[in-house]
Fold this sequence. Notes:
Mean pLDDT: 76
Low-confidence stretches: none
Helix content: over 70%
Amino acid sequence: xxxxxxxxxxxxxxxxxxxxxxxxxxxxxxxxxxxxxxxxxxxxxxxxxxxxxxxxxxxxxxxxxxxxxxxxxxxxxxxxxxxxxxxxxxxxxxxxxx
Length: 98
């Protein structure tokens, strides 16, 4: 990576399902843990780089966690949204096939 991401520049995708959000949170947790381990294992100025990168990923994780909390609150509506999205996708696939 040629640059170190900053927390202010991190964005979270807005079109993830609750299951995808949970998977993304688990992946970010693993990446943050790895970066913190690398920061503890290196010398010179490297730990600063790893800590900045970990802070940026923690900011992204926080945004994803907020999205997940919002989807859990609207779980009833999200089921219907998922069904509608599936029907729309099926309709598009059928129209492409015909």
